[in-house]
């Protein structure tokens, strides 16, 4: 089956054909680094991580760019509040962002360009738009002429006469048209600035991504992504300025994920119901957070509450326990040939094909997870057999890990849920067994208590002592 992606531009699912065979150029708008990211920011971070993983699993070489907006009105205000500089605010929250995404099992992008490292490219981009009469200077600012770009509104499917002015499109009498948007902002006294042909100032929000995407990925991207809220004005403005300059489509496929609600209410500062990833990681396991984000289709809204995260915790625990049981039995299983191996392998291949088919259908992660649970059910049935073989167990382990290499659920649970790594837990258990043999009860009890504090449960089974995480 061929991968099909729902394209926001056409409002249809389209077969995915990259510009260059075997290579994918993907740009996803990153955070404005003035504060800790909230769970709304985390949704595209996790989802597009899965998109990238799946594309790579099917053989594509993915050049994945996620930018940092490190100069902006919000950073300027934050620097004033903290009595520090804009670069120091940016550095602080870029570090926090990287720690958060690592905690969520998200692989770092190919590159995370920062706006402040690309001022010359941004100025050159604006100069070219001015030269082509798509932009004009006014009072130290530079604006884009939206009425000169005939297709303005085509991404968000809004009529030019009916467009609602959105966030960061300021109504200003210096504009020729109320819908014109700023490319360069004149610096106010005391603000961070760079010199330009139009005076001291800094870039507008929209021009940043266009300039950086063009530098690292060329005039046309394969995939441009972000949250639903970025369709207008941000991505609409990117389309206008980029395509006016290059005369080529900015992106072949536009992807936008849905909103997250908190207890059935829209997350907003006015309601005070936002949850940062920092806070959530203290309340929920990273794997459960990833599972929650992937449990609904990416274009659908998600509702967060304590019940949904508890359900996610239970689901990832079931996954982890299955893999743990398989690996535990593997250590004592025999090497005899498994008569049922061929039939089991056929069933595993069918489930993996089902998983791929769901992912090929516009990255349908909830149905892909259903396929994963079918595999877990098959594995659990196999584990009930009185005699299992290394071949059979290893086949299930390989199949589970192959699917999870895309979803990224099990590695997070296995390596980050507890303070102790697996190897250290195994060593402590061996030491405890030896201590009990030597009748060193004090040391045995000390190790038991240590493991208990780390959330490790010891179980006696017919196959011997085993452990699992709570």
Low-confidence stretches: 164-169, 411-418
Number of helices: 15
From the 3D structure, determine the CATH topology of the largest domain: Rossmann fold
Which CATH-level-2 architecture of the largest domain? 3-Layer(aba) Sandwich
Number of domains: 3
- End-to-end separation in angstroms reads 39 Å
Question: Which CATH class of the largest domain?
Answer: Alpha Beta
Average pLDDT metric: 90
Largest sheet strand order: 4-3-9-10
Keywords: Aminoacyl-tRNA synthetase, ATP-binding, Coiled coil, Cytoplasm, Ligase, Metal-binding, Nucleotide-binding, Protein biosynthesis, Zinc
GO molecular function: cysteine-tRNA ligase activity
Family: Belongs to the class-I aminoacyl-tRNA synthetase family.
EC number: 6.1.1.16
Describe this structure in words.
There is one protein chain. The protein is an alpha/beta fold and 470 residues long. The protein has 3 domains: 4-283, Rossmann fold; 286-416, Isoleucyl-tRNA Synthetase, Domain 1; 422-469, no CATH class. Helices cover 47% and strands 15% of the residues. The protein has 15 helices and 15 strands. The strands form 5 sheets. A 4-stranded parallel beta sheet has the order 4-3-9-10, sandwiched between helices. Strands 5-6-7-8 form a 4-stranded antiparallel beta sheet. Strand 9 (221-227), helix 6 and strand 10 (251-257) form a beta-alpha-beta unit. Helix 14 runs antiparallel to helix 15 (441-453). ATP binds at residue 269. It is found in: Cytoplasm.
